[in-house]
Design a protein that fits this description.
Layout (H helix, E strand, L loop, with lengths): L4 H45 L7 H25 L4 H13 L1
């Protein structure tokens, strides 16, 4: 078996770069999704205050709790699908922190 440092360095660099970009994009997407959800919920409460609609707050917060658990299970699935290389994981972590 032959040990080629150039090939290994290239794989590590590509894995790290792909991980960084993936982590960065995921964090930006999460921020956008949370902002949109926040605007939606605030608009519901504003409409309730104006007397246009009636909001069942218990059901709304139970629904939000359900969304949170679904997002967490989805993130576990995504992390299970992602390549397990150390460079990708480190790049993903750095990109997520930077995003």
């Amino acid at each position: 078996m032959e040990f080629n440092v150039n090939t290994m360095a290239g794989d590590i660099g590509v894995g790290g770069l792909v991980g960084f970009v993936t982590g960065y994009a995921l964090k930006k997407l999460m921020k956008l999704a949370l902002a949109l959800i926040g605007v939606y919920v605030m608009s519901l409460f504003w409409l309730q205050q104006k007397g246009v609609i009636t909001v069942n707050q218990d059901k709304l917060f139970n629904l939000a709790s359900g969304w949170t658990s679904e997002i967490m299970s989805l993130s576990d699935k995504v992390l299970g699908i992602l390549p397990g290389t150390g460079a990708f994981v480190v790049g993903f972590y750095l990109g997520f922190q930077k995003g």
